[in-house]
Write a structure and sequence with these properties.
mainly alpha, 75% helix
Length: 216
Amino acid sequence: MRVAYRTAAPLLATLGLAALAWVVTLPQMRGMDMGVATPLGSFAFFVALWAVMMAAMMLPGLVPAVIRRGRSAGPVRAVVPFVASYLVVWTLVGAVLYALYRPHGTTTAGLVVIAAGLYELTRLKRHCRRCCRARTRSGFEFGLYCVGSSIGLMAILAALGVMSVTWMLVIAALVFAQKWLPARPSVDVPVAVALVAFGILIITAPGSVPGLMPPM
């Protein structure tokens, strides 16, 4: 009974928090997506929204790690600081993104997508993805590995429309798949090639990608 509680409680809490984050995020993003020309608003607004976005996108993929923590040390004592410190890492990423981000053109967006596709093939990506599936000492450490694993995909989100619900869903699905599925070249290489091809399409035919450019 106690083992079941240590499994069910963190599972339900994590998925419930993710669902709540989606409920909060979607109304906030309504009307803000302008594709590659999307402004971020004030620092406080963007970082707060980004933190909620990361909870919505990343927490479902965190479930295996959360369950492991709950079984080993209890759902409250271990899971709450683990999840909180994990989200702190992604919030810091949002702060860095705010400092670096500028509304940009389709060529820049395409180049970012190509770079993200090539990053999927690097040793650093594979190492961080393996560590993101392993046991770690803290949520902060786990978050750093997951940033290393998913930073290319997050760059795609920022490049194509950081306030786009559609791209948010697509990137969240890719992150979830990479967290739950083992790394295999037969899957990872085609994904990387598809991203590179998509980046080339953005550069050569931006009008074929819906929502990439703001309406006239």
